[in-house]
Amino acid sequence: MRKRLQRFRFVHGASWYWVKSPQSRTRLDTEPLTSLPELDLRSSSHFYFQARSSTLFKLVRDKYSPKEHFWRWLGRDIISKRLTGSYDAYKEFTSRRILQKVGQNTVDVRCYGVALNFLNPLGSLYAMERLDGCVTGSAHFEALDEPGRTAFIDTLANQVIELAQAGYYHRDLHLDNLLIDAQGHLVWIDTHVKALPSSAKKRGALLDRMLANSRINDAAYRTRLRVKLAPCF
Predict the structure, then answer these.
(1) CB 190 within 8 A of CB 172
(2) What are the tens digits of pLDDT across the range 123-178?
(3) By the number of CB atoms within 10 A of the CB, which of 56, 68, 143, 231 ranks highest?
(4) CA–CA separation, 127 vs 49, rounded Å?
(5) Among the listed residues 66, 169, 164, 162, the one whose alpha carbon sits nearest the alpha carbon of residue 120
């Protein structure tokens, strides 16, 4: 794991980050990053793209403002996240490794890191390969016929079950947090996972939330997913 200081150029200005790089051979240069407002609209994060390295950057904004909620900002965003190393990009990277261990597809990570300037509200940076020829899970599901949708729900359920058997669950399971590649494989792009609670009551509540937020609009398919997942939750 390589560690270094790196300066990235955004439309709002340049910022320094302390980044860590896994075994990716792609070199990130100082080319300015292009904002992607179409992705921002579908997410709470901010997205940028670097064409030369074909890298997608996801930056997470601090939850609180130092001007409006100083003590909450200091406690939650600075001390609890940045200073302890528990910022969003680190959690996503470690979650990705868990998914890889159970044999599921994820996106190649170029680097991840944390802003050096505490007043930079985009404290967490996660840079990953941009995949071409893929569609979101939602778009893929809508384009399928009935047998195809049933098979897709079963595939999705099997992957969630594999993760649950390893002791984890997707914190935000919905169809836009995965891509479908040209071969029809699921690729997880938002890899935040958490440990399953031991309480049956809490696991049941988790399953309810997962289904409610799944962006599967047809009740029959949500019911099918529930039936398959219920034994693990």
Answers:
(1) yes
(2) 999 999 888 889 999 999 999 999 999 999 999 999 999 999 999 999 889 998 89
(3) 56
(4) 9
(5) 66
Angle at CA of residue 49, ends 28 and 182, nearest 5°: 100
Asked if 18 and 113 count as a contact pair (C-beta separation under 8 A), the reply is: yes
Question: Residue 25's pLDDT band (boundaries 50, 70, 90)?
Answer: low
**Of 175, 207, 200, residue with least CA distance to 188:** 175
Axis-axis angle for helices 146-165, 219-229 (nearest 10): 30
Nearest-angstrom CA–CA distance, 4 and 21: 8
CA distances from 172 to 82, 161, 191, 194, 222 (A): 22, 15, 9, 10, 16
Instruction: Name the amino acid, one letter, at 61.
Output: R
Amino acid at 78: I
Distance CA 230, CA 186 (A): 21
How many H helices and E strands in the chain? 7, 13
Give the pair of three-digit tokens for residue 152: 């897709």
Q: Is it the case that residue 39 has pLDDT exceeding 80? A: no
Residue 157's alpha-carbon distances to 134, 148, 163, 207, in angstroms, are 20, 14, 10, 12
Examine the pLDDT at 4 and tell me if it is beyond 90: no
Residues 42, 58: Cα–Cα separation, whole Å: 13
Chain centroid to CA 54 = 18
Name, in order, each residue with C-beta under 8 angstroms of 209's C-beta and a sequence gap of 6 or more: none
Instruction: Centre a 10 Å sphere on the Cβ of residue 147 and count the other Cβ atoms it contains.
Output: 8
